[in-house]
Amino acid sequence: MNITIKQAKDYVNQEVTIGAWIANKRSSGKIAFLQLRDGTGFMQGVVVKQEVSEEIFQLAKSLTQETSLFVTGTITEDDRSKFGYEMQISGIEVISESHDYPITPKNHGTEFLMDHRHLWLRSKRQHAVMKIRNEIIRATYEFFNDNGFTKIDPPILTGSAPEGTSELFHTKYFDEDAFLSQSGQLYLEAAAMAHGRVFSFGPTFRAEKSKTRRHLIEFWMIEPEMAFMKHDQSLEVQENYVHHIVKSVLENCKLELDLLERDTSKLEKVATPFPRISYDDAIEFLHKEGFDDIEWGDDFGSPHETAIANHYDKPVFIVNYPTKIKPFYMEPNPENPDTVLCADLIAPEGYGEIIGGSERISDLDLLNKRIAEHGLDPDAYSYYTDLRKYGSVPHSGFGLGLERTVAWLSGVEHVRETAPFPRLLNRLYP
């Protein structure tokens, strides 16, 4: 019977066949240990000289890293491994030999590994990170489907920009100018007026010449928009969503978190409600912490966000930023017109902002005023202003950056490990 490594637990003491690759091996005079991987997981296969033919034993000893094969044997329990099972191998059929595999068990430099990203993905660590990424995606669909959201797919090619054109990739759309989307938000707002609660999940692009460990040129965003929803209500949705994905990763990625040596006690503290601190109070806090370089009206940098996050043991909302440093579409704060009803959610442990959100302007005259103040072309946003002409309602939304969230939950330092094929400032290959 052909099974996968993930199914091994259901076939204890049964003879099965698994298609796999050799991740590593070691052998002595009488026994060979094969580290098998098949995409669903990693498992040890044991070849005992006295229990197989001489041909099979010599073949096992000669197998090279990343050779593909079918292995046949009996699944047994193995309390010494964290996986809990291994295979007592009785037969080996080589599919394709691998020679001079470039990524060996020794240490390699980051640039070398990034040049070989198509192969680096096979390693245990990268496999674990991608599994956690997949679980976050699965839990995302689960959360929004269970809470009455409809998935809407906004266009990737757009004729306008939600946050200005300074960080957009420009292209030609036949005889018109077009841009790669930096957010699907404006289109999601239109969809929310049709479906009430909507979300998108897709690639976004920022032409930002940044080399920090938090930035990618191409990244994936989860962007919900909700009609008839005020800012405070949106914050509750955000914290419930984040709590859901954290809980799902803790429950369903135990092996992966353990392999990555993630301190899960810190993730277990992520429970709602999340603390909230105003921008004003954040500035005051930073001054007390010795950050004299920041003044009211400045945006926060990585050291500032980290200092604020370190004061708490779970994600923290910073609310009501100054109007002048936020996009044109945000609703003014009625208690202070110099600020807007918005929030950034800062992840603990130095991982920075993972969510940005706000209540959107619902008044047509104010929106037109903001468009003019930002020097934007009103004609390019006529579809957006139409939403305020025909039954405008209070509405709010947010965007969560997938790769930063993966980095936080998996505990990896740089977002380049959280995308299958990351696009960085100086990297478009592989």
List keywords for this structure.
nucleotide-binding; eight-stranded mixed beta sheet; BirA Bifunctional Protein, domain 2; ATP-binding; alpha+beta; five-stranded mixed beta barrel; 430 residues; 2 domains; protein biosynthesis; Asp/Asn-tRNA-synth_IIb
What do these coordinates show?
- It is a single chain.
- The chain is of the alpha+beta class and 430 residues long.
- It has two domains: 92 residues, Nucleic acid-binding proteins (OB fold (Dihydrolipoamide Acetyltransferase, E2P), Beta Barrel), CATH 2.40.50; 301 residues, 2-Layer Sandwich (BirA Bifunctional Protein, domain 2).
- Helix content is 30%, strand content 27%.
- It has 13 helices and 18 strands.
- The strands form four sheets. It has an eight-stranded mixed beta sheet with strand order 6-10-11-18-17-16-13-12.
- A hairpin with a 4-residue loop joins strand 16 and strand 17.
- Helix 4 packs across helix 13.
- The chain is elongated, with a radius of gyration of 26 Å.
- The two termini are 37 Å apart.
- The mean pLDDT is 96.
Task: Pick out the low-confidence regions.
Answer: none
Architecture per CATH nomenclature, i.e. the level-2 architecture of the largest domain: 2-Layer Sandwich
Q: How many angstroms separate the termini? A: 37 Å
Strand order of the largest sheet: 6-10-11-18-17-16-13-12
Name the overall outline: elongated
Tell me the total number of β-strands.
18
How large a portion of the residues is in β-strands, by DSSP E? 25-35%
Number of domains: 2
Write the layout of secondary structure elements.
Blueprint: E1 15-27, E2 31-37, E3 42-48, H1 54-62, E4 68-77, E5 85-96, H2 110-115, H3 117-120, H4 124-146, E6 150-151, E7 157-158, E8 170-173, E9 176-180, H5 185-195, E10 197-205, E11 218-227, H6 231-252, H7 254-259, H8 264-267, E12 276-278, H9 279-288, H10 302-310, E13 316-319, E14 332-333, E15 336-340, E16 342-347, E17 352-360, H11 364-373, H12 382-389, E18 395-401, H13 402-410
Parallel strand pairs: 3-5, 6-10, 12-13
Antiparallel strand pairs: 1-2, 1-4, 2-3, 4-5, 7-9, 8-9, 10-11, 11-18, 13-16, 14-15, 16-17, 17-18
